[in-house]
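#onboarding

Welcome to the new folks! Below is a worked example of what a typical request in this channel looks like: someone posts a single protein sequence, and someone else replies with the predicted structure as tokens. Don't worry about understanding the tokens yet, we'll cover that in week two.

Example request:
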Amino acid sequence: MAGLLAIQKLGRNRDTPRLWIESQRLNALGFSHGVPLQIEGSRENLVLRPAVLGQNHVSSREVCGGRRPIIDLESHSLLSGLAEYSEVKIIASFERIQVTPSHGAFAIQKSRSLMPPFRVLEVFAGGGTMTAALAGDSRFQVTAGVEIEPAFADEWQAKHPGALLIQSDIRSLHTLEIPACDILMSLAAPAAPARAASPKRVVRGRSHAPKTSPFLWLVDCAIINPS
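Example response:
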């Protein structure tokens, strides 16, 4: 069945939260120009339906080939809960539109209330270069690390005897096999550049790569959704 999924930010008009939905798809879902709307909802969940006695109405704008429906809702009482989130998810089906925080926005909002100690997961862990910076800091607790190379994994587990060692290619892991964490840390190098881009020297007829590494190391640390 036809539907509509949109993820967007709430607007504001003079400090009042504003929900704006604009799509031709609304015509097929029963939300054409002039249709009155019934609005129900709680703090983080809003539901819109067509209703004969509704006080809000679908508006529209003229576009090539007809008119494009617009739902423009501006209200402190209805949208104040959703306005706390960075973006909302709009799911529209026939004669029903639901507005909630998006998964990403919910995770961001939840992360703002985190309290230490923060659970840390290190991926591409190597010998624990990144998490070594957290040693002795009571605000962080290294709970798990992902490393496929046995030699590096041995070094990592020696530094974190109380943490879970996941000795695997991270691409082989299902999300359910990755432990819950508050902070994700990684230190990874992308694929080496093309051979022609790496200068070499020739000594006694043999080619040698330069001592400096051709890799660009990327450091990443992100607060993610705790569970």
